[in-house]
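We read letters as residues; the fold follows as tokens. A sample entry reads:
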Amino acid sequence: MPVLSLIKFKLLYYIYLMNTSLEALRQYFQTGATQSYAFRLLQLKRLKQLVLENEQALYQALHTDLKKSKEESWATEIGFFLNELNYTIEHLKGWMQPTSVPTNLLNQPSTCYTVQEPLGVVCIIGPWNYPFQLLFTPLVGAIAGGNCVVLKPSEFAPATAAVMGKIIQDLFPANYILYVEGEGAQVLTPMFEQFRFDHIFYTGSTTVGRIIYQQAAAKLTPVTLELGGKSPAVIAVDANMRVAARRIVNSKFSNCGQMCVAPDYVLVPTAFKQVLIDELIKAIEQFYGTDTASSDGYGKIINERQWQRLVGYFADGKIVYGGKSDASSLFIEPTLMTEVSMDSKIMQDEIFGPILPILTYDSNEAALEIIQRNPNPLAFYVFTNDLATEQYWLTNVPSGGACVNNTSWHLTNHALPFGGRGLSGMGGYHGKLSFTTFTHMKSVMKTPTWIDPDLKYPPYKGKGWLLKKLIG
């Protein structure tokens, strides 16, 4: 058989197998097996148990893929997920209960309520930077919502993907939770073309998010897009520079800067530029030592392609600290840069790495103009102790989320919705919002039959005055 014919045959056979698997999910969902409270609760508890049983394997995998320490893996991946899972287990029964709403005069004596019903078969696509947390945390919401799920991990974190695959395949039948690995476009495009999901949940780049949004639109499939962008940190004149520097460094260089809500660049009043730089350097060396390459608490870049992209930014400004790199170990030192042009690549792209441009401003208007070049960031950070300054910045910078005198930690509170707006995404999740994201709020009106007034039926002649009172 010619090579091209063999490739075409394999592709068609793959599509056939995938369609069969997806239809099995649909058929299982239609049995209603996933919808009871008892079933959902049991799956969540079993998932928790198996994750804990594989905790050490996850630590090793996350270190292999991203050189994450055990402590960082717990705080940002496993512990984060368990916090979300435990909260969901505790509140699931209440979330599933119908919610009564008022009945207007026209519809008396009806009773009205809303109920959250499962969507059906949903697809969750995870990224590589937090490969466990950002795939399994939305899975909690999907299971709690009573859905069947297709899980697609990132192919760029293969060690973690292997452990997650073992957990899912050991725990759930493939007609309930289907775990699909492989190169993103090759796996997802045939699925989206042949099968209509009831929801697609994607975390990753804005570029790929656009493609998924277009593919989903062809079948009118709703989406949640958790994307990124250039999240600015503004330092006001009254800010505590030491605290600001420590909190910026803590988020910016965690996971080697590969975090969607990490501060992408800093805006500081011109007069305080050097003060901030000095404090940033102190914080970096306190957290990671002077030899970052040998630090157990400092990660690595995910792959050579990303490493090459990041070191390419070094030419876009003046390096005032750091700048060391090593391709063989995928290492890039925490790096501070100044004299960066607004037209350079580093100020147009989401950096997604351990490089922090420091820009100066002399008026709030000038700083706003810089921020507005990349509008609607996923996160916005302002450091100030003045309430009027705080309100000015929160009002004038639309963003997915925000922190005052902090960075990134807002996403750890399950009571706060997490998501973007505009180019940084749409929709959100965490806590109860994860449950509502993967369910449909159905409106229900229940009307008794013991009364049936003629007012509501034709002919309406002569009833106009009364209808105006009831409806108006």
The chain has a mean pLDDT of 94. The longest strand covers residues 111-118. DSSP finds 15 helices and 18 strands in the chain.
